[in-house]
Design brief:
- By secondary structure, the chain is an alpha+beta fold.
- The protein has three helices and four strands.
- A hairpin with a 7-residue loop joins strand 2 and strand 3.
- It starts with a strand and ends with a strand.
Length: 102
């Protein structure tokens, strides 16, 4: 099982905008790839820390979804829009890929 996460630190006062943005991203990913994405908000620790998380059966399945997203111009515009709006702390977005050990 492959776990994909993208971690965000939201700029102060931008939680509402970030939440709307994450729900838009989740809908777009589902539409493009069929992948279910969870929105996680950190309850303890730094404020404004969110994670988008999804799972895939294989690395190839993850790569197929990633390729669809990367080649979709409307999705790429959505990504660029968030950067321009100052919703996230610059340099705080990180992506990780995990494999569950048997």
């Amino acid at each position: 099982m492959i776990y994909s996460t993208i971690s965000f630190t939201v700029a102060p006062g931008k939680n509402f905008e970030a939440n709307e943005y994450f729900h838009t991203v989740v809908r777009q990913v589902k539409k493009l790839t069929g992948t279910e994405v969870s929105i996680l908000q950190q309850l303890a620790g730094p404020m404004g820390h969110f994670v988008l998380s999804s799972t895939y059966d294989t690395l190839a399945e993850w790569d197929q979804a990633r390729t669809k997203i990367q080649h979709d111009t409307s999705f790429q515009k959505l990504v660029a829009e968030a950067g321009k709006d100052g919703v996230f702390v610059p340099g705080s977005v990180t992506a990780s890929l995990w494999q569950k050990q048997q």
